[in-house]
Amino acid sequence: QVQLAEFGGGSVQAGGSLRLGCAATGNTNSRYCMAWFRQAPGKERERVATISDMSTTHAAESVKGRFTTYLDSQESRLYLEMDSLQPEDTAMYYCAFSTRSGFESCLSLTFNTWGLGTQVTVSA
């Protein structure tokens, strides 16, 4: 059983940067995908970025070129570097995990393990 804990959220002015982290504990030795989602008040949850155990990444169009996700496999941590933040990036950010079969695409997975989230607030 994998458990996730996000860290690194906070408040920043528009144009600023933040780095979020997600510490994973438990068995991550199988094939897996991890992802960042976000949800703003009154809005649906949005997938921000995914990464496979092979470090294949995908970013949503809304953050492409501004956000980068990467794995530190030795530390069992997932990171999300967020640059050029805008007020519309304000949301609760969640880390998620799912095992996968072989080279199954991360985009096709339903993530079944979630962290509690960390708040990101961007002021104009």
Describe the sheet with the most strands. Answer: 7 strands, mixed
First-last Cα distance: 40 Å
Mass-distribution shape = globular
Radius of gyration: 14 Å
Provide mean pLDDT, rounded.
94
Give an account of the 3D structure:
With 124 residues, the chain is mostly beta strands. Helix content is 0%, strand content 52%. The protein is built from no helices and 11 strands. It has strands at residues 3-7, 10-13, 18-25, 32-39, 46-52, 57-59, 67-72, 77-82, 91-99, 113-114, 118-123. The strands form 2 sheets. Strands 2, 4, 5, 6, 9, 10 and 11 form a 7-stranded mixed β-sheet that branches. A 4-stranded antiparallel β-sheet has the order 1-3-8-7, with no helix packed on it.
Architecture blueprint of SSEs:
Blueprint lengths: L2 E5 L2 E4 L4 E8 L6 E8 L6 E7 L4 E3 L7 E6 L4 E6 L8 E9 L13 E2 L3 E6 L1
Parallel strand pairs: 2-11
Antiparallel strand pairs: 1-3, 3-8, 4-5, 4-9, 5-6, 7-8, 9-10, 9-11
Features:
124 residues; mainly beta; seven-stranded mixed sheet; four-stranded antiparallel sheet; 11 strands; 0% helix
Short description:
The chain is an all-beta fold and 124 residues long. Helices cover 0% and strands 52% of the residues.
